[in-house]
Queue: 2 jobs
Job 1
Amino acid sequence: MVPTFEDVQAAAARIAPHAVRTPLVEAPALNALTGARVFLKLETLQRTGSFKFRGACNRLAMIPQDARSNGVVAFSSGNHAQGVAAAAKVFGMPAVIVMPSDAPRPKMEGTRAYGATIVEYDRLRDDREAIAAAICAERQAVLVKPFDDAGIIAGQGTAGLEIAEDVTRFGVTLDEVLAPCSGGGLVSGVALALKGAGVRANVRSVEPENFDGMKRSLEAGHRVKAPGGALSIADALMAPTPGAIVFELAKDLLAPGLAVSDDELKQAMAFAARELKLLAEPGGAAALAALLAGKTDARGKIVALILSGGNADFAVNLQ
Amino acid sequence: MVPTFEDVQAAAARIAPHAVRTPLVEAPALNALTGARVFLKLETLQRTGSFKFRGACNRLAMIPQDARSNGVVAFSSGNHAQGVAAAAKVFGMPAVIVMPSDAPRPKMEGTRAYGATIVEYDRLRDDREAIAAAICAERQAVLVKPFDDAGIIAGQGTAGLEIAEDVTRFGVTLDEVLAPCSGGGLVSGVALALKGAGVRANVRSVEPENFDGMKRSLEAGHRVKAPGGALSIADALMAPTPGAIVFELAKDLLAPGLAVSDDELKQAMAFAARELKLLAEPGGAAALAALLAGKTDARGKIVALILSGGNADFAVNLQ
């Protein structure tokens, strides 16, 4: 049930024909500002605009051929939705995605463009898991969970394998790896991959304040729920509690977690556009926000940050 | 005087400690749209936000130690300015940059931030070459030309070496390489590097309509001047004639050139932001514009595009 390093390696082989081998690139503008050497893993350039395609593609590839025709069902605010929809298209499977009616427009349009059927729900009133379960039962379809699934975690971990390959190629030794975290599939999968590949770095989750369930759970030593409350601008990072399978990995593999404010997320998005020429959505910029806000002591260290997604409704104009 | 493949290799060794090893990344959104396999060389992520740092860094590294204290002088609308200013900072040399007073604000601010002294001129009235020559004479400083110089061409060519390495790693064989072109330092250097590295692709210049001196010169078989006229939004691509040394290479190495309109440039910038999550300045998006506008028949081919710069005055807001 808890994935192994071998599961991440198997995932990498499964998704290689379909996923983008995203780059790790050094950012001199961040080096100058922080006194660290900073490398960015650009999951904004992944198919569908976020890392979520990795997990979805691996999970769907694991569904036996004779069970594929009934299709898949997922619930998601947008990035997992697009990941599952795009992976279903790759494997010729029907997909139904249960999405909040306030999901960012590009995420909803993207999901529809990959050919998925969208069922909308009210984020505050409806139980999306119940809606998805009912659709699964009716269609005999496979539910593709957003994070708490060995196949999903192993798929997201392939980003960590690539980071390990690239730092070897660059001849550098990582001290810190920062990854945005909602339910924790990405950060736990990446930590699993890095450890298996022999990279001994502190891997840290970065969450929005008040949605920092991973940070609180790591401090408590068991899964606890973050207080939540007013919605964060990081629509992709609002899971209140890390997944159970995720936490089995996280409690052993992660260094203490970090949390950032909405203002820090906005500043990081603006910095990414102005100085790095990269668009990141609020949640996708969380690790960058933690670095820029000094949430971890980076000076003199070698740091990798995951820019995990870029699917926001940006207005971009020449001034 | 005309650089060789060995000069490009020497340049790569010189700039390696200072320049970003920029990524080549596949773009599924472009594959789906064009029926080609499209790879992007992200020079927007180069130090200073454009490829120009490569040539400047190589050229300055070639100045003998005992001639460095008098510094360097350059004229540029902005990207070469920042490249020279940043390279001068690396080598501890003073730099004076002659810039048009209507240069994009981020380019002027960036140049100043690297510690260069800026001398402004009027793009329509003043002779920037005469101004730069006078400053050089007064200071006994080295003039760093924007493109028509073997050291500059070899430096820009290092981007081509990296493309060749990366396509080998990906196991693909390029058919077409498209590069934005002003005086032609980048496209000729890249063509030289690719040929030397054994990549047999059509390498094409992409210029703004009416500033397509390279395209016209290749058609004529000798250097001719483009008509110019109304300024293009591609402020970085307004050289009317390819360089003389550049053309010695270009006439033998380049496939027929392409030209794009301002509207096509704007559409390419919008596509880059919306679909690729990448910011490109108007000139930096020229090769992408040519692909999107169907200026070359890409279907079924393997294409590399250089996104050459990202230094525009963007307003980026969440909607």
Job 2
Amino acid sequence: MGNRLPPLFRDISFHAQHSPIGAFASFTCGQFGSRGGFGLEIGKPGNQNIYIGIKSGDRSSNGPVKVLPFFEGASSNEAGRYDVERAAGPAEAHTTPKFPTYQPSEIRRHYGWATDAWKTDDFEFAIYTPFLQIPDLHRTSVGEWDRALIPAIYATLTVDNTRGTTSKTAFFAMQFAEAGVRMIPTIDDSSSGSSLGSTDDSIRCGFAFRRKFGISARCIDSQRNHDLDPRHEPSAHPIDGRPFGFNRFDLESGIKDPVPHQLGSVPGIGITVPPGQSRTLAIGIGFFFEGIATTGLEGDYFYSRAYRSLEHVLDSALSNIQHAIDAAHHLDEKLLRSTLSADQQFLIAHATRSYHGSTQLLDVGGEPYWIVNEGEYCMLNTLDLSVDQVFWELDQHPWVVKNLLDNFVRHYSYVDQIKVPKASAIQLMGKQAVDSPDVMNTPRTLGTTIGIEHYDIRPGGISFCHDQGIHNNFSPQGRSSYELPDLVGCFSHMSGEELCNWILIAAVYVARTGDLEWARANEHIIEACRTSLRNRADDSGIIVYDSLRCQSGSEITTYDSLDHSLAQTRSNLYMAVKAWASLRGLLHLRQSLGHADASDASKSIIDQAQRAARTVVKHANPDGVIPAVFEAENPGHASRILPAVEGLLYPQFWNEDVRNTAPELVKILKHHTLALLKDPQQRNLFPDGGLRLSSTSANSWMSKIAIFQHVCRSVLGLEADPEIKSIFDRADAAHVGWMLHPISAYWACSDQFVDGIARGSKYYPRIISSALWMREHAVHLQPTTCN
Amino acid sequence: MGNRLPPLFRDISFHAQHSPIGAFASFTCGQFGSRGGFGLEIGKPGNQNIYIGIKSGDRSSNGPVKVLPFFEGASSNEAGRYDVERAAGPAEAHTTPKFPTYQPSEIRRHYGWATDAWKTDDFEFAIYTPFLQIPDLHRTSVGEWDRALIPAIYATLTVDNTRGTTSKTAFFAMQFAEAGVRMIPTIDDSSSGSSLGSTDDSIRCGFAFRRKFGISARCIDSQRNHDLDPRHEPSAHPIDGRPFGFNRFDLESGIKDPVPHQLGSVPGIGITVPPGQSRTLAIGIGFFFEGIATTGLEGDYFYSRAYRSLEHVLDSALSNIQHAIDAAHHLDEKLLRSTLSADQQFLIAHATRSYHGSTQLLDVGGEPYWIVNEGEYCMLNTLDLSVDQVFWELDQHPWVVKNLLDNFVRHYSYVDQIKVPKASAIQLMGKQAVDSPDVMNTPRTLGTTIGIEHYDIRPGGISFCHDQGIHNNFSPQGRSSYELPDLVGCFSHMSGEELCNWILIAAVYVARTGDLEWARANEHIIEACRTSLRNRADDSGIIVYDSLRCQSGSEITTYDSLDHSLAQTRSNLYMAVKAWASLRGLLHLRQSLGHADASDASKSIIDQAQRAARTVVKHANPDGVIPAVFEAENPGHASRILPAVEGLLYPQFWNEDVRNTAPELVKILKHHTLALLKDPQQRNLFPDGGLRLSSTSANSWMSKIAIFQHVCRSVLGLEADPEIKSIFDRADAAHVGWMLHPISAYWACSDQFVDGIARGSKYYPRIISSALWMREHAVHLQPTTCN
């Protein structure tokens, strides 16, 4: 039950995205008054009311029920009884159940890395989401990965009635808005059949929604013979203590009526615990998607190599539940022992869940295909997310990074041309920037496009698509779902940044794994990347030319809906340092392949990197702050951005000490960062102390803040400064507050916050970049394996 | 374009459920201001806005668009421009398209048996749903049924711009509320490739939603060289006249922008027709469900034996479209030529579509499995619907009736006991009736249940479940999804009526097909039915004992939410005549099997039938009207019901002249019917002239009205009475009005009307019983075959 986890001390009403790995599936719950439950391939919380609670007396009694407030209409602000929306489904359902809910003060929530537990005086309910290492699926057999990839999570519902004087009936039920609920036939595993009768532990029951998801429960850990209050006799009802399934149009009828109705929309499972006894229901919560799940590239879920049906998943989950709980406790302990602050631990635990909810491991043509979906947007393998998630993936299952790199090369790379502006274009380019207030992901053609007659067209080189498709629909080869021509702003191309992203992922992958076989096989790609990055730069060494794919538009960065400070790729501080890091990454890759730094190609890389570093340094203002955009007439020139330092992160993965290889760059970036953090005007802080990535925007990205903080501490050594530590501690607390804001809290873990409220990039995987913080505390990041 | 169909003369704003056969799929459209479109396995209209219309000028022009009002927010009552709800999907979609719609006065709708066409001065749009005979799938190969079972329907969009002076761009687009839209890659079939260039007719383009449904279009019937106004030159734009696909967040951007956005939620196809030319876009509208679709019994769609993917379906539909249009016109002609009134033709055409939308032909374990879903409720093969649909099915593809009978025997039959009331029960039984106002399908335990201690338990016999499951979830063997114990009213058991239903279906099947092989193989079932029907009756010959499956409740009839007049099975007039017909059916089956009427078993059947007939006759009041319920203290005793005569329908299928075999019964029922129809108080009419099945209820079922009218004409010969003809003509007009009421019209064709508005049993298959009327006009009902 996650007993060792301390209770949360802040607002406990927030959704958590409980997910297996690779199933693009979640069971979301925890925000009071909100629907949640099962979500399969939808990028948002499910649409079910969840009723977890207790009825006084046995199931047939007229005793009251009392439930956790996990349903629409359950307000945490009023005591007592609530109307519940009429369930969808046959028009027969006119019931209006009303029942009391536990008040927040009556609930304690314990939120660990892999355990999410609610405790009341009547019962404990806990959900376990242990995440195990997925071994390289090219090299392992089913028995080595089936536990890691089971599309199920686990729960327990415990009623300790050893001191009670009457029976208590515990239940877990859900109200479905869509039609298709069914009972899973109750199975009695007792080998002796009816002659000796079944035991509490031999009965499995559950319910499902069509073939897609459902739950199965069985009693474990029943205590009859010890801890009993001697006043109580064993129950007179022989079926007490055995789990049962139910289904009616409303919760109370379902609990009470022994005959499930297949037309019902509120299925559930329950157990009556006689006085003097204690029971724990083990609950498997499973998902199953049969057949081909995607278009374009056609893949089915890799787990279907081991699991044949939803029922198979649920049976396996119930068989495996003790291992799963142990693994969850092990992970809880690991995070607890990290010495990270409670706020930091919360953010990591929250991020880990939402990351897993977006993961999708397919079998495409017999080969594994790793996908991380882009949260609410469900874009497949958005490459500018991948680069931020790679640290986590390299710790957990590094082969998925290789899989990603290969799939981008094979299916989603392209060779473009670039646009070299004529004088006429240069005059127009300052006005091309998006000069707008924060734009909430609105399509932006607000800036000025510049006809391609103002450009000379020259060879560009290889680059990579922003993503590989959306909503299970793979894009055509060499095309993302996101990028369009003729735009300035959102939905334009990201050729320059995605090129850097692929290089950086490749470099950290080879550095972390030593996989020279892969590096050798991809040397021609690495070389093509070098050429491409060179062609996109001028003497400044940084990317200054836009891809012809933009046509009259211009390239943007991953901060597609922030403001002008981080909107354009060209002559952008964030991109300049990232390009510098990419050049260092290319050099590292060449070193790994045995190429001397004195070789012509390596020399050209070193030279471009030095020029890029000098370009950054030279643009620093007299006060040491570097403009976000180097183009003087661009509105971004006045912006002050924290992500300037992001590129300093990567070299540490190949053991490069940037203080030695780029001392001037590091020095000016440290100066810049300190100036921004300690700015008397606090232009890079929100009023609550949260970090503002751009001084001119109310938009901030949690995943990028996490990287920024990590670079500050682990590369720039700023943690030694008590003032910085205090700023960061206060920021961590603010960021937790952002997640817990009632609007944000519906979406579990989100990335894009406007004035501290999740407004975009919701239900998002990328905040797993926060797990970088564990490195600072020398947490042994060895993943938990199946064995 | 269904040119020979006259335009509708009444309200043209109603949904029609355009469906292939056996795919449990519909493309619903036609009600102004409502969503519709694709619905797969949902029992209700789809959730898309549909934009069909014209833009002045070519696609890049700034000309206005004008669309049919097939989208939410398009009111037919105001001219001009409307706000359209923001599409769901990525948060980027903030656009608020506004465009003018055609007013009702600008639209003519032509609604034939298999063509539904809208004509404006600018274009014509027509949907074709030809229904072909499905050959016995046990005995035919794929090539003999693939056209009949293709999960697609067909449409054309024609712009005749031969007299125009500017280009017109026609389009068909949809706005999806759910995420997962994709473009189908444009295919150019021109064998010569780019050297000779593609032609208008060689290009196919389309869009889809994931792998589930979509459309594909190609140009046919382009007229360039004749009918041209000599003033016009061919278009200067070489791509004019070729179909194109698009996809953006809003319609107008999509039409205008040549680059589709994979993030868009408004995909479409279009074609620009230069002045002086005419074009027709052929459109395939397809569905595809991959893999196992059901639980319990596991089946996939039979069509997947011939079609491998949605794209395969769409390609095949486009290849087949001319045949399909020809078949649709053939069917239109057949109904037009029937000499049925326009109102009757409308009801049949409307019913045919909704029937097909509920059909689902599966492959279960290698064998075909025929299912008709129960409209909005999606119950599988509700047997009390099957018995009303059997006439149609026997005309179209009689083998599905055998399939249904067999599957009920194999999976959904049971043997019960019956409850013989002791004196103590008889005292209570009058109060057991549901005495309530019309209950809108509300769960009813309103009546008084009677403990089984008041009964003697005796052998019952074989009967059949109410249904086989719900929402693709098959029920456990021998159990329906609907029936529950301990109820009086809705959701109670229908053992008696379903027994009669199986007998009647078997009898008409054998009579119609002469399939003695089947009859012989099932003689033991027929014999078991005889025993069962005998055991449920007392000396009265009619069903008076309830099944023990009811426990403390009592059996109900298919009129589960009408009132007391048709609620209970026991001692019910409707059931008495139905049981009499079932006995005659058993006798016919025995005759077919060569058993003499003088055999003991046949004698016992004849005897029971005579007793049943006498029971009905004897309960007639002095005025010749027979009470709905024979129990004097039952509130139904005062009700006057039209369905009393329903049972007279079946014997005509085995060529029995009931005027000879049961003259007294026929005489009293004719008297009863005339008394009700000509009642000076008009208790069995609604104020609009519609027929009221029970004098005491505002609930009326259209499918049952159709059967009643048919019996009146074809068995009782009442059509010779001009007063009756006038009443029926007025009733037909009223019933059309019921369907067209704005609340009803959303649900296409519905069955259960309360005061003339569809309130239950919506989107329903059963009204196909109206096709019985074609028999009265000697319409050659030979189905249209694939060849």
